[in-house]
Amino acid sequence: MEILKEAQAKKVQNIYRRNIERVLGALLVTSDFWKVVDYSDLPVPYTSTIIKVLEEKGYVKIENDEILLTEKGLELVKEYNIAPYKDFSCEACQGRGVPFYKNIDFYRTFVEIAKDRPEPVQQFDQGAVTPETTVSRVLHMDMRGDIEGKEIIVMGAEDDLTGLAIALYGGYKRLLIIDIDERLIEFDNKIIKELGLKNVEARVHDLRNPYTEEFLGKFDVFVTDPPETFAAFKAFIARGIATIKEHGGAGYFGLTLRDSSIFRWQKFQKELLRIGAVITDIIQDFNDYMNWGYHEETKAAQIAPVNKAPEDIWYRSAWYRIELLPGFERTNEPISDEVFYLDEEGSTT
Ligand code: SPD
Predict the structure, then answer these.
(1) Measured between alpha carbons, how far is 36 from 22 in angstroms, rounded to an integer?
(2) Interval 270-279: pLDDT, tens
(3) Does ligand 1 lie within 6 Å of residue 289's CB atom?
(4) Does the beta carbon of 225 sit less than 6 angstroms from any atom of ligand 1?
(5) How far apart are the CA of 197 and the centre of ligand 1, in A?
(6) Could you tell me which CATH number the domain at 100-340 has?
(7) pLDDT tens across 77-90, in order?
(8) Farthest-apart Cα atoms in the chain, separation
(9) If you classify domain 2-79 with CATH, what class do you get?
């Protein structure tokens, strides 16, 4: 409670005792700050503040960019029976429940095509998921009956190439891919043309602008991966829901705990229920993001208690699937770009 109060005094409000325990449990198995963030399921600024309080109180020391529990820290862990972080997730599917190699030809084709993809840019908070993740997303959608014969819109986050992957996979009735980044749309269109892919269109669109009639109520399924501020969540998810034709339609998106707290998840989830959605799937750590080249320029790098950049995958997100129930709400208001990417919990943009 003392550690919690100190962290809260440093303006970290959205944490509770369990978060301190998770950080200590992570420190029992790793000294890498970015792994501690991952294992704690906490936003970077919150993990950083907790580590700084632990250091001030002599429970940890930082040497050569490694965070180490001191004798006093080890005694604390023992006194409160804090368990080390454990990972028993399935090695075959990497915890996703969908092994990417179930359709190995599709995976190989996607990897070959994705090797020339544009680099992530900071301007749009890009950071692409691994090819294994993208392929698993598509297989998961197909498994849930959301590809065959469906009209699908992929909205933003095309740095993950999920739209292109669905186009390669086929089986849908119609596919529309929209993204603000011209480079990604050009990349998709080049492949679509070269391979002669049918019933698919990729075009530039800024999701902050309201949709025209051509988007509203025209699709069975939407897919996106929003930044984590509430404004961005509304821009991406409310817009996605507005594209759905009728009840029974579905939406897919990632939500992370690296740029957002569990308290904000509750706010997101309440908003989903209010709109008339039901959450059918939350697969924790489904999405693995490859490290992005602009890390040094981010708030995350500045506030981290170490100078070492992440070397391995540490940024992961849960994959959500929602279904729309009778009477669901369609909204289509302009979205302000204030706090679109960064706020007190977000730091990786
Ligand atoms: N800026 C780092 C990469 C962030 C990628 N977006 C993740 C969104 C999760 N909803």
Answers:
(1) 9
(2) 999 999 999 9
(3) yes
(4) yes
(5) 28
(6) 3.40.50.150
(7) 999 999 999 999 99
(8) 64
(9) mainly alpha
C-alpha torsion sign, points 176, 191, 117, 146: positive
Distance 176 CA to ligand 1 centre (A): 22
Q: Does ligand 1 come within 6 angstroms of the Cβ of 300?
A: no
DSSP string for residues in 65-125: TEEEE-HHHHHHHHHTTPPPP-----TTTTTSSS-GGGGHHHHHHHHHHHTTPPPP-GGGT
Residue 63 parent element (H or E): strand 60-63
The letter for the amino acid at 116 is D
Token pair for 345: 């919990």
Ligand 1 touching residue 348 (CB < 6 A): yes
Residue owning the nearest CA to atom 4 of ligand 1: 127
pLDDT at residue 233 in the model: 86
Where exactly are the structural domains of the chain? 2-79, 100-340
Residue 45 near ligand 1, beta carbon < 6 Å: no
Q: Is the pLDDT of residue 339 over 60?
A: no
Name the helix (H) or strand (E) containing 319: strand 316-324
